[in-house]
């Protein structure tokens, strides 16, 4: 199943429209190319409806939102909804400022997202109105642990039920839930946390997976999460002495570039709850 | 001749003003430094005339154009024309949205470009009013092939005649034409297409080549195209097992950093038609 | 002392708010993570006060300033002053345009900076009203040399006295001065000049050092300068055949990632004047 999801991306080369932050945008574009997708970045209100119309999916990331790009997010999201396109929200830093929290909440209210993907603090901000966001990183107090796993899964399923979106939470343990099922994924390396934008990269790549597997968004999102985690493992194995977070970033994208569906299937570590 | 063009860049260290997109801007800056130029990025209408005045050339790239940067492109371009500076247009995504097509056409109408460089779909959009732009990548239907080569060259020469600009089209076969001659260049690797922004990088580097060889823009543009293709070949040869598109990006810029005029001269594969 | 400064960063994980340019922003984020800090980038006037309030320090870099981000710099800087936070100014390109010079001067007038860090041309523009800025790089005519070293140090101490800020000037010889003392630092490699944004990276990392050592800004700034220079040396030692400025960029950040306080202490080359 995971294999098929990835094979579909390689075969269909989905074109993904990204309204994303300027911090990690280059890595998002390169990982989209690495997985078999094709990226286009456009954030001016004068063109986002045109651009999203020629794409198969839309990735909205609020990492460096501003007065000009916020209206573009709504315009593009609504247009994508009308066209029946895949739409993903990455609520970067929701909880860190009033503007981010308000914008993320209004996006969730006005646009039907296929997937909402964030760290646990961002998702708690959206689903509970409270989260201990430490800037753009999740707060330890919010962390998903073996102890609170079932409780957290229950909340994610309820939030999925309420929004109609698949909810993907990434961290030490990754969770991908719809209203009935939750993938609990244990791939990845803690060292990925020392790279800026692995979450943004995952959101971009996940949008391509969703485009190429529009009938099964839960599985597609889980496959993308597994692929990112496995790339983190493979990239780490390839690190040489003296190489640190900057080279690790390249090696993760490189690992996606060389990954095939079989590797994804074999190395994925997940259970369903 | 190619050697001299490159040597001039290394000797003159031209300062290049870039109004460019935020996706690939870092790579553009680093390749400009790698080839011997010096980059400055500035896109606010309150300073672009000042900035372009202290530079030798201007690189306008519409990859993430917006309401604020579009007027800056016109201001800087007109100022550069008044000063007799080199100006290059990279019409990223022309054809993908009305805003991009309109902006690119108006730039070509109002500013005298030394070179217009794009993929074949972008250039067709400008020269024929139609192109099958697939986002920021050329569409297969537009591809330059051995079969349509002479016809395409004829069109590029006519477009050069009409605009007074050298026209550079990059893809599997690269073409650099003025109204009378066309360089047909066969360097490069198809894997370069899996890196975001090799076109943007080429435009930045080409502007430095044009600055340092202002009397012969056709040759300077061809030399930059050859250098980029050869860097793609050298970078590919240096790839180690497991390295993919992200590391390849670095290795291409590294190859420009170490390239000298002799290597450029020896490895360039081109004919004149 | 340098060791303790670095150890404090690793222990306290300071959260740094960056209003910075889109050219080098990704490298700034990654070097902040590499040294033990945590970055957040936010530049909209609607959120910068919120964001800076949850951080321990603020890094203002005017590298691609514009109409929207300039007011944000003032809002965030004033808020950080009220909160008693560390604030650093990197006046990228001051002297290259009227807008940059004016903005940098007004920032220095209205905000109390813990440190002002730039190249010698930028700092001369601020302290003498004149500098030979060559775009974003210092002009050779301004270079700090053994001959003008004492004179330059005298000027920096006076500028520090006048502004109440530590003044850090980086180049072939690095200087970090308050009104009484000046660190003269001779780490680093000339090849760092072929990488875009080593100065921006240093400013980001220095802000983390200042946050973690708020009682001794002069020493913290000097420690960050030494760390960057040593990383440049270590990164250079790790370069393999064929690797150039793009890979070198990664290796410098990697070197910060693996550096510890002892290495910093042992390899730092400085004197006090």
Automatic annotation (TrEMBL), chains A, B, C:
The keyword Iron does not apply. Keywords: ATP-binding, Kinase, Magnesium, Metal-binding, Nucleotide-binding, Thiamine biosynthesis, Transferase. Coiled coil: none annotated. ATP binds at residues 117, 170. It comes from the Bacteria. Substrate binds at residues 41, 197. GO terms for molecular function: ATP binding; hydroxyethylthiazole kinase activity; magnesium ion binding. Its cofactor is Mg(2+). Pathway: Cofactor biosynthesis; thiamine diphosphate biosynthesis; 4-methyl-5-(2-phosphoethyl)-thiazole from 5-(2-hydroxyethyl)-4-methylthiazole: step 1/1. Its EC number is 2.7.1.50. Pfam families: HK. It is an enzyme of class 2 (transferase). One of its GO terms (biological process) is thiamine biosynthetic process. It catalyses: 5-(2-hydroxyethyl)-4-methylthiazole + ATP = 4-methyl-5-(2-phosphooxyethyl)-thiazole + ADP + H(+). Belongs to the Thz kinase family. Catalyzes the phosphorylation of the hydroxyl group of 4-methyl-5-beta-hydroxyethylthiazole (THZ). HAMAP family: Thz_kinase. This is Hydroxyethylthiazole kinase. It comes from Anaerobutyricum hallii. The lineage of its organism: Bacteria, Bacillati, Bacillota, Clostridia, Lachnospirales.
């Amino acid at each position: 199943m995971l294999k098929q999801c990835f094979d579909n991306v390689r075969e269909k080369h989905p074109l993904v429209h990204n309204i994303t932050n300027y911090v990690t945008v280059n890595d998002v574009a390169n990982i989209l190319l690495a997985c078999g997708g094709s990226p286009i970045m456009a954030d001016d209100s004068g063109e986002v409806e045109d651009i999203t119309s020629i794409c198969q999916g839309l990735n909205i990331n609020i990492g460096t939102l501003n007065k000009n790009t916020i209206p573009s997010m709504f315009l593009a999201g609504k247009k994508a909804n009308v066209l029946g396109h895949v739409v993903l929200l990455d609520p970067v830093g929701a909880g860190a400022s009033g503007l981010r929290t308000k914008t993320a909440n209004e996006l969730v209210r006005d646009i039907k997202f296929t997937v909402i993907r964030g760290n646990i603090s961002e998702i708690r901000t959206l689903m509970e109105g409270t989260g201990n966001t430490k800037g753009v990183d999740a707060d330890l107090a919010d962390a998903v642990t073996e102890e609170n796993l079932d409780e957290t899964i229950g909340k994610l399923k309820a939030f999925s039920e309420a929004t109609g979106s698949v909810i993907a939470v990434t961290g030490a343990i990754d969770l991908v839930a719809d209203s009935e099922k939750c993938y609990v994924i244990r791939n990845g390396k803690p060292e990925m946390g020392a790279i800026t934008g692995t979450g943004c990269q995952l959101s971009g790549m996940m949008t391509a997976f969703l485009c190429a597997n529009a009938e099964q968004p839960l599985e597609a999102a889980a496959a993308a999460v597994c692929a990112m985690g496995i790339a983190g493992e493979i990239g780490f194995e390839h690190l040489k002495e003296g190489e640190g977070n900057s080279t690790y970033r390249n090696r993760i994208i490189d690992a996606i570039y060389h990954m095939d569906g079989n590797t994804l299937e074999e190395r994925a570590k997940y259970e369903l709850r």
